[in-house]
Amino acid sequence: FIDVAASEDGEVFIVRTSGGQYSTRIVRLVERLTEDGAGVDTDGHRYDWVPVGNGVIHSIGNGTISSGFIALSADGSTVAVSDYMNDNDSGKSAGLVRVYRLNPATREWTQLNGGN
User: From which domain of life does this come (predicted)?
Assistant: First the structure.
């Protein structure tokens, strides 16, 4: 299972992966940087896709089937991750939504809402 979302300008992508039941779900965010060494786009510019912050924003591995959605803000600085089959303190398949924002000074992700 793979889910992908992009920023409005297409320079930031978020990818959610899962191997299915009893596996860890991971959300990673990458951005395209124009630098030497990675490849050449149609305009002849060199580019590379690099992790934003620590790369892994959200990870769950509690034995539920990955189910839910990801969303990325237009500017690529805010991410919402849902998992409606997640087991948490509220009960079996209680679900969850986590929202993260990129701190521009530290380039690290901060979870905006509390809890699991």
Answer: Eukaryota
